[in-house]
């Protein structure tokens, strides 16, 4: 048998086949890239998670947003990668639709991350450290969470919430300056740690970890994100709190709180040493019935006189109202004293005028009633 010769392939045909295969691969790549994938991959948008299209297609999740987003239909079609209708003459510019689509996605993102599915998506990013760490030194790089100061767009940019110190901070990079804080909202951060208490710090500062009975280093030296423990307070977290507070010193001596550079707001960072101490204070953080704890300072003891809690200017918001009332009373007393002084002055003036008038009348009567004396003269 004679072997059949292999057919010779034309180089031009090989180039065309290679071009067709590469074009098909590129078309499949572009077809899988959705608008949501593109938007979340932009610089500064790494705080966002990818909202599921099923969540956006549900009209119940979009309640009330139609009045807030211009070009609602076109923006929704752009977010869901729906081909727009042929009649697009009403739209002046595509950039307007893009800004509306970004606003729509941000408002939907605010609602998605407080759902069960959205929280599970954000907890993966949080544990991976995608949001950064707290800039406070004594928080020892505790992972932070994005949050907003308002639920309406256009008010403030996104902030970062630290679960250890309980404060919010501005993101370190300027690329987040264009991200609206309303796209995360005010509910997300507290609800996140209510749902996952094992990621939140305990409300008290335990000097010794509850897992070990032997003395060990303080909680400030423990690694952040260490092993969780069972918190006796069911409403608290399960991470060891880092309760160390910065103490300013000059030549080794503590600076008084009455000094210009004194730690006047130190009490904001302090934590109780035991969970039972939370029951000894009222809802304003003041000791109840003279109950003191190991963390009570001399000033706290001075404020407790005979079981009666004295109010301090830093701890009670009602002091401002009381000072205003005292100032108003002083002003009223001063006004009343001024009116009394003016009345007395007017009375003295009237009395003096009456006396002068009486003297004049007496003198006049005396002159007119003595013609004989005038004749003698």
UniProtKB/TrEMBL annotation:
Stretches with biased composition (Low complexity): 210-223
SMART domains xref list: CK_II_beta
Top-level division of the source organism's lineage: Eukaryota
GO molecular function: protein kinase regulator activity
Xref: Pfam families: CK_II_beta (PF01214)
Segments of skewed composition (Acidic residues): 9-19, 315-334
Region (Disordered) residue spans: 1-26, 210-241, 290-356
InterPro entries to which the protein is assigned, alphabetical: Casein_kin_II_reg-sub_N, Casein_kinase_II_beta-like, Casein_kinase_II_reg-sub
One GO biological process term: regulation of transcription by RNA polymerase III
Family the UniProt entry places it in: Belongs to the casein kinase 2 subunit beta family.
Function: Regulatory subunit of casein kinase II/CK2. As part of the kinase complex regulates the basal catalytic activity of the alpha subunit a constitutively active serine/threonine-protein kinase that phosphorylates a large number of substrates containing acidic residues C-terminal to the phosphorylated serine or threonine.
Quaternary structure annotation from Swiss-Prot or TrEMBL: Tetramer of two alpha and two beta subunits.
Entry protein name: Casein kinase II subunit beta
Organism: Kwoniella shandongensis
């Amino acid at each position: 048998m004679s072997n059949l010769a292999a057919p010779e392939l034309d180089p031009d045909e090989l180039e065309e086949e290679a071009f067709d295969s590469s074009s098909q691969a590129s078309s499949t790549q572009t077809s899988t890239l959705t608008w949501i994938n593109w938007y979340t991959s932009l610089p500064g948008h790494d705080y966002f998670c990818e909202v599921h299209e099923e969540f956006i297609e549900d009209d119940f999740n979009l309640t009330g947003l139609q009045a807030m987003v211009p070009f609602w239909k076109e923006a929704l079609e752009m977010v869901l990668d729906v081909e727009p209708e042929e009649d697009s003459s009403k739209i002046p510019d595509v950039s307007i639709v893009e800004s509306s689509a970004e606003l729509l996605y941000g408002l939907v993102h605010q609602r998605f991350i407080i759902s069960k599915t959205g929280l599970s998506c954000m907890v993966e990013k949080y544990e991976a450290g995608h949001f950064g760490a707290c800039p406070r030194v004594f928080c020892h790089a505790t992972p932070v969470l994005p949050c907003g100061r308002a639920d309406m767009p256009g008010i403030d940019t996104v902030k970062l919430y630290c679960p250890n110190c309980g404060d919010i901070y501005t993101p370190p990079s300027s690329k987040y300056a264009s991200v609206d804080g309303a796209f995360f909202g005010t509910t997300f951060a507290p609800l996140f740690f209510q749902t996952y208490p094992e990621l939140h710090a305990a409300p008290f500062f335990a000097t010794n970890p509850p897992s070990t009975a032997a003395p060990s280093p303080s909680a400030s030296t423990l690694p952040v994100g260490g092993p969780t423990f069972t918190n006796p307070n069911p409403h608290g977290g399960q991470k060891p709190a880092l309760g160390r507070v910065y103490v300013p010193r000059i030549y080794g001596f503590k600076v008084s709180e009455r000094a210009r550079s004194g730690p006047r707001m130190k009490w904001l960072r302090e934590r109780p040493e035991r969970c039972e101490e939370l029951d000894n204070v009222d809802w304003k953080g003041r000791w109840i019935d003279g109950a003191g704890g190991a963390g009570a300072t001399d000033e706290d003891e001075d404020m407790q006189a005979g079981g009666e809690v004295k109010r301090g200017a830093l701890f009670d918001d009602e002091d401002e109202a009381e000072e205003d009332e005292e100032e108003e009373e002083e002003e009223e007393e001063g006004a009343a004293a001024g009116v009394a002084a003016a009345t007395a002055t007017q009375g003295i003036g009237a009395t003096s005028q009456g006396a002068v008038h009486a003297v004049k009348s007496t003198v006049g009567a005396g002159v007119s009633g003595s013609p004989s004396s005038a004749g003698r003269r």
